[in-house]
Structure formats: C-alpha cells, structure tokens
Amino acid sequence: MSLLILIRHGESRWNLENRFTGWIDVELSEKGKKEAAEAGKKIKDLKIDKAYTSVLKRAIKTLDIVFQNAGKSGIPIARDKALNERHYGALQGLNKAETAKKYGEEQVHIWRRSYDVPPPTEKTQMNPEGISESLKDTAARTLPYFRKHVLEDLKNGKNVIIAAHGNSLRSIVMELEKLSKEQVLELNIPTGIPIVYEFDKNLRIVSKKTL
Q: Which of 54, 93, 129, 210 has the highest CB neighbour count under 10 A?
C-alpha cells in the first residue's frame, strides 16, 4: 500500500484579490498560511517519504508550513516547474470579475474551466513572452513528470505529498480518476485541503478521502 497526498497551496494574495495568477510568483495571504497550518495538523499522523512541489513560492511556502505543523523534517523535497500552475497568458494579473464584464462570464468560464481552450496570448506587462496554456497544455508538462517520478515512488511503496496548484493538480486528478474532458470542467480543488489517495501494489486506487 502507498499514499498520495495532494494539496493545493493555501490562499495567495492574488486569490484574495480575485486575480488571475498563473506563473506570477505571489505570496500566501494570512488566510493561506493558516490553511496550510491546518492542513499540516490534519496529516501529522501520516507517514511521508517524499515531497514534490512547484518552483512557485506560494506552493513551496505551503509545503514548508504543512511540514512545520505536521512535525515532519528531513523529508526529501523535489521542486520542478512541471508542477507549476497553468500560464494564464494575457489574463495574468487581471481581476476576474472585471475580466468577466469585459469578455462575458461565459467566455471567462471557458478560459478557466475548459480542457483545451487557452486564454488570450497577446503580450502584456504580466505576460511579456506572449504565451498561455489550456489545461491540456498544462497536463502535457505535468503528467510526464508525475508518471516518471511520483508514480515510480508510489510503485515502490513510498508515501508521497504534492503541494502544487489548482490546474496542475486538476490534470493529475483527471489522470488518476480517468475523468472525461466534460467531467474535469466541474472539478474544483479548494485551497489548503489535503486529498489522500491510497493505492494497492498494482497502483489501483483503494480509497480516496478529503481531510
């Protein structure tokens, strides 16, 4: 048996301000720090052998706070941009409500929740590269890393925690639970709430619970 714990970073300052964040490296809000602390208390009785996180500080800090409050130290941590949030393109930095007024709520919902429709790609101050990602694009970089490293750890009987982001985690959940493109539209992963999967030796899901 092995465990996989998924946790979306605690509320960030831009979550609080209702802004599209993407690859912008913002800090946790005070509420986000408290969410991470509570998550740590919830998993303190679970054995963890390896941790993974993105290279964005809201996820890194969440994992640090989780471990502090779970009383865990010395656990190997791998950080990789493959686990970063999806790139929101020209929407990065914009207020979500104002963006909905400008483009329409339906269009913004499509950009946020669809599987293969990326946000606008024009260059902005928050997006000088002029790039953006759909969930499909995010999965294309997240899942190969997940399969190569995390699934290998689980196969070897290790208990793993991933502290990452709404969309990188959505792509992982989509894979684990074999969700369709339509089902993933309704999938929302809340901040700071541990989701625990238990696997048998053949990597079949035995149980799933939210702490």
A: 54
Residue 78 CA to residue 125 CA, distance in Å, equals 30
Report how far apart, in Å, the C-alpha atoms of 118 and of each of 6, 26, 109 are: 25, 22, 11
* CATH code for the domain defined by 2-88+133-210: 3.40.50.1240
CA atoms within 13 A on the CB side of 18: 6
Q: What is the 3-state secondary structure (H, E, C) of the chain?
A: CEEEEEEECCCEHHHHCCECCCCCCCCECHHHHHHHHHHHHHCCCCCCCEEEECCCHHHHHHHHHHHHHHCCCCCCEEECHHHCCCCCHHHCCCEHHHHHHHHCHHHHHHHHHCCCCCCCCCCECCECCCCCCCHHHHHHHHHHHHHHHHHHHHHCCCCEEEEECHHHHHHHHHHHCCCCHHHHHCCCCCECCCEEEEECCCCCEEEEEEC
- 153-172: per-residue pLDDT in tens? 999 999 999 999 999 999 99
pLDDT tens digits, one per residue of 82-127? 999 999 998 999 999 989 988 899 999 888 888 999 999 888 888 8
Beta bridge partners of 74: none
- Chain centroid offset of residue 33 CA: 16
Q: Determine how β-strand 195-199 pairs with β-strand 2-8.
A: antiparallel
pTM, rounded to two decimals = 0.94
Dist. CA 5–CA 7, nearest whole Å: 7
